[in-house]
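PROTEIN DESIGN WORKSHEET
SECTION A - STRUCTURE
LENGTH: 496
TOKENS:
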């Protein structure tokens, strides 16, 4: 069938997201003295199945002291990643269109980190075996594997919805995009006719409504591959054990916080079997949270324990972004607000060592830092050594991203030489920053750029009907951006 290569969608390119889970320094922070990489030092990193390659290129810009490799079987994806690497002068990034098996046979070093986001459960058994063989051959002893994948039982109710859509698309007419649209229409029709599947699984209707809002490039890759296998954690752990890999940590601080919060529940319910077997505990945790996606860090046997330098922290958000209660994983987190607010305020002046930062929070310092980490309001910062080289490489990529925003709404982040990672900036933010760099008035620049393309931002999710109201909306957004976002971006070195 047209549009599938080895069962994988190639007719439509993937989305241009930035995935924070791929960043090396939060991985190192999560792993502590077991991390094979040290803040700001050289390392070798590989991303398998990198999609459009935006996250990989951003990490290469933010870590010019390190070397980055990656592959993707879709030639358009590789062309996009090469464009980013060439136009931003990222000589430390090398990408390949080879599939996993051929890529393993090519001239590659052994890596400190191999990362796969949204790949494992989107390819078939043969490709998963090729991935394990790749890791066995190209990962250092003690090296890190990041794996982000769809997990059971969180996806259980939705498997028949995907089967319905795929079966319909296989039989449909026209382009893949048209067949995808047709398959969603069929699902809507069945729901409208009170189909039993929708009746006894009410959350499926909610999921269908969400799918109807998503762009076709996301849907194509998320739901319309021939291979799509949400999997149990224990099956993944068993497959990776063949390459000497064991689960070491959750990469997201929010998931580590929740892990601690659920530990008693899991041990009480699971008894001795759970106490003895960490993989079984993880399986139970997936039943308790019912989360649909895991973000795991595995470590390969044979590594050494390393002394870790004092942690440095940088602010990713403004004190006004702080909430008293939030749900960063699957259950609510009560934030020690005053302590967290004081710490985030102190960080606005620039990175701080952990001991000094904790002192700002008094007795609640440790709980407040955990909350700030879980809410992604702080990130590990790199030592000052190498800052100038990082700043120059980030500035080249960021200039390209600001230029790109004039025409397209994609790649929603900028590179930070302070964290060696990314910071979220939407298209409008990038238009404001581009105006500032060109010495133009930000609101008028955003207004004329968008109006010339016949585009307007939404207000409360609804279209704005007049140019005057559009300008007023942009002025409001600029006021908030200048007050809350710009100072953070300056402190992160993401804007000069
Ligand atoms: C769901 S997408 C995820 C892309 C990217 N990692 C992300 O999360 O943005 C899966 C990616 O795997 C790539 N892929 C599929 N089979 C592959 C193979 N055998 N070798 C290399 N890449 C492959 C696809 O082209 C696609 O870009």
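SECTION B - SEQUENCE
RESIDUE ASSIGNMENT:
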């Amino acid at each position: 069938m047209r549009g599938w290569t080895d069962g994988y969608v190639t007719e439509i390119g993937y989305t241009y997201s930035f995935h924070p889970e791929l960043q090396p320094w939060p991985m190192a922070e999560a792993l502590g003295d077991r991390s094979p990489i040290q803040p700001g030092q050289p390392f070798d990193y590989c991303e398998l199945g990198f999609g459009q390659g935006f996250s990989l290129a951003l990490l290469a810009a933010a870590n010019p002291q390190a070397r980055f490799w990656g592959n993707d079987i879709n030639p358009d994806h590789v062309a996009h990643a090469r464009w980013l690497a060439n136009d931003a002068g990222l000589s430390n990034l090398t990408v390949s269109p080879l599939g996993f098996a051929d890529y393993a046979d090519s001239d590659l070093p052994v890596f400190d980190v191999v990362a796969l986001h949204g790949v494992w459960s989107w390819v078939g058994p043969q490709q998963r075996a090729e991935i394990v063989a790749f890791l066995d051959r190209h990962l250092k002893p003690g090296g890190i594997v990041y794996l982000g994948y769809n997990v059971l039982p969180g996806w259980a109710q939705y498997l028949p919805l995907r089967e319905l859509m795929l079966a319909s698309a296989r039989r449909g007419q026209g382009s893949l995009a048209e067949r995808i649209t047709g398959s969603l229409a069929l699902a809507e029709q069945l729901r409208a006719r009170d189909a039993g599947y929708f009746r006894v699984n009410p959350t499926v209707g909610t999921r269908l409504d969400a799918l109807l809002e998503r762009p076709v490039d996301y849907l194509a890759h998320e739901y319309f591959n021939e291979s799509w296998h949400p999997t149990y954690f224990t099956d993944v752990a068993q497959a990776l054990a063949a390459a000497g890999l064991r689960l070491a940590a959750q990469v997201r601080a929010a998931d580590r916080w929740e892990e601690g919060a659920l530990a008693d529940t899991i041990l009480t319910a699971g008894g001795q079997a759970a106490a003895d077997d960490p993989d079984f505990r993880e399986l139970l945790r997936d039943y308790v949270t019912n989360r649909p996606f895991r973000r795991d860090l595995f470590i390969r046997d044979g590594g050494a324990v390393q002394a870790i330098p004092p942690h440095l922290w940088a602010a990713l958000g403004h004190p006004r972004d702080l909430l008293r209660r939030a749900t960063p994983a699957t259950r609510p987190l009560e934030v020690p607000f005053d302590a967290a607010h004081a710490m985030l305020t102190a960080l606005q002046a620039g990175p701080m060592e952990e001991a000094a930062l904790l002192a700002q929070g008094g007795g609640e310092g440790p709980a407040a830092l955990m909350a700030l980490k879980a809410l992604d309001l702080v990130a590990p910062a790199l030592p000052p050594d190498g800052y100038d080289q990082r700043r120059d490489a980030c500035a080249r990529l960021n200039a390209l991203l600001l230029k790109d925003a004039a025409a397209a709404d994609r790649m929603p982040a900028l590179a930070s030489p302070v964290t060696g990672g990314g910071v979220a900036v939407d298209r409008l933010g990038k238009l404001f920053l581009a105006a500032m760099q060109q010495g133009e008035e930000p609101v008028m620049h955003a207004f004329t750029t968008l109006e010339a393309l016949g585009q307007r931002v939404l207000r409360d999710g609804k279209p704005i009907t007049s140019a005057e109201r559009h300008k007023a909306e942009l002025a409001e957004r600029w006021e908030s951006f200048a007050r809350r976002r710009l100072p953070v971006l300056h402190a992160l070195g993401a804007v000069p």
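SECTION C - NOTES
The chain has four domains: 4-153+230-300, 156-223, 312-380, 400-491.
The mean pLDDT is 95.
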